[in-house]
Every structure is written in structure tokens, then in C-alpha cells.
């Protein structure tokens, strides 16, 4: 029998569609296994300020289809300090929480790892980020929904791009990862994707214009990953205006559109599987691991591995995009 009687659950960092499905699965799986569940509002901030409430099964009714996170989320500078983490730990003890499940991206897992080491608290993380940039899992919660949103937006932009014979640069999220830009370009039939993983190696813009933008096309759409490396869509568009002034250039930044919306079936299923797996992991005395999915199988990935290692882009997809955009 597991020694864990009460678990705390929080969502932290940027929200991602499917987080609610994960919260629901964690809560109900824990209750099914005889545990008490406490929802921690506003991420690590709520852990420090004590915004904690016991969750029953009805607290997570009717949330699987909702975007965002019912637990709210916040960035928290105090948690980066030893004093902040000490206060968080005292609140955990006061609430009799034996273990934590954290849902979020890179920063969330980094905070969880330090906290777990300092106070010997069992923590299991779920990868909740639309960027899909966490190592050790094929996909992250929210990525599929964001990709579908990008596809729908680009489809709409293509209608106007075709009407006006313009070159559209569409900026998508991803921070320093090109997964959304590359796969979004493939899904929407875009002409190219400018991503940070390749920008370090070659000038993607000049290659694209010299090889691509065929005379047979009256409009072109290029997806650009938001990143200091790529310069974002505005930076790329400025370059085109200077170096290739004959193009009629437009920029669209999709921004927070990509984070919102009801989660796709894939995100709901995956978040539910991962949420249930988090409780299984704690019952198996696992700690300091992120729940991942590799080849459809649940895996436990040590925090240190998930955070430190860069997730590689599939370069075959670049060739597919290049080939199919002629």
C-alpha cells in the first residue's frame, strides 16, 4: 500500500489546452485509489500564498472539454528563492500533502526538481506546453490543439493571400522550438517554415526565396517560429522589404490564439492517460519524473533528462515540406 495519502495538484507557466483533462484524471484516479486531493490555485504562487482547496470528484466534473486551466496559472519569482520554496513547503505540511503533481513546461519541471531535492517531496510532472519542446515525450499536452488552431488560421489567411497575390509571414509560438512552425506548415500546405533549429546552420530566407516562391504561385505563406534566432515574422519581413523589395509582404502574428480553445480528442485522451499514470507512478514510489509518451507507451522520464536535453526536430519533415511546396 502506498504511503501517500494526500496529493496536491497545480498547473504552472503558460496554459495549454488539455490541462483540465489532466487535472480531472489526476483527481479522479487519486480518489479512486483512496487518496485525498488538494487543488493548488495559481501554480507555485498559490503554494506560497496558501490558495489550496480540497478537490472532490465533482470539482472536476464537466471540465474535460474546457481550454485553459480551472486551477489558474501564474509565473512566480518568489518560488525561485529559497525563502519562497521554504514557505511553499510549510504550506504543504500544513495541508498534510504528501506528494505533488505539477502540470506545465520547462520552467514548471525545473521548479519541481529543485523543490523535490530540497525537501524530499515526491513530485511527478506532466508535460503541459503547446511548444512540444520537452525531451523524453513524443508529444506534450496542448500541442495537437495548437497545431489544429494554426492550421485553421492559416487556411483562412490563404484565402486572402490568394486574392491579393501577397507573401504572408505568419508567426507562431514555440519560443526556441520549431515544432509548431514546421508541422503547422506541413498541415496547412505552406511554402516554407523558418525555424530556430536550422537558422543557426544556414540562411533560410535567402534559400527559400532563391529556391522557392515559384513563378507559378500567385501567393506564398511562410510560417516563422517566434525566436530571437529567427527574428520572428516582423524581423523576417523587414529583411524581405530591404533585400527583395518587389514582394508585397504582410505579417500576421497568431499570438495567444494558439493557446486557447477546446482541446482536441488527441489532447484529451493523452492528458487523461498521463494524469492517471501520474498517480500510478506515485503509488510505485516513483519521484522526480515526468510522465511521457513514446511510441504510444507511457514512460517515466527523470526531470534532469526532460529539462536538460534538447528535443531534436525531425529533419525528414523539412525535406517533405521542401518537396511538396514546389
Structural key phrases:
seven-stranded mixed beta sheet; Rossmann fold; alpha/beta; four-stranded parallel beta sheet; 2 domains; elongated; 326 residues
Task: Write a structural description.
- The protein is built from twelve helices and eleven strands.
- The mean pLDDT is 92.
- It folds into two domains: 6-142 and 263-308, Rossmann fold (3-Layer(aba) Sandwich), CATH 3.40.50; 143-260, Phosphofructokinase domain (Rossmann fold).
- Helices cover 43% and strands 18% of the residues.
- It has 326 residues and is α/β, with parallel strands linked by helices.
- The strands form two sheets. A seven-stranded mixed beta sheet has the order 3-2-1-4-5-10-11, with helices on both faces. Strands 7-8-6-9 form a four-stranded parallel beta sheet.
Layout of strands and helices, then pairs:
Blueprint: E1 6-11, H1 19-32, E2 36-40, H2 43-49, E3 52-55, H3 82-94, E4 99-104, H4 106-119, E5 123-127, H5 143-164, E6 167-172, H6 179-188, E7 192-194, H7 196-199, H8 204-211, E8 220-225, H9 232-243, E9 249-253, H10 265-283, E10 289-294, E11 297-302, H11 303-308, H12 315-324
Parallel strand pairs: 1-2, 1-4, 4-5, 5-10, 6-8, 6-9, 7-8
Antiparallel strand pairs: 2-3, 10-11
Helix pairs in contact: 1-10, 2-3, 5-6, 6-12
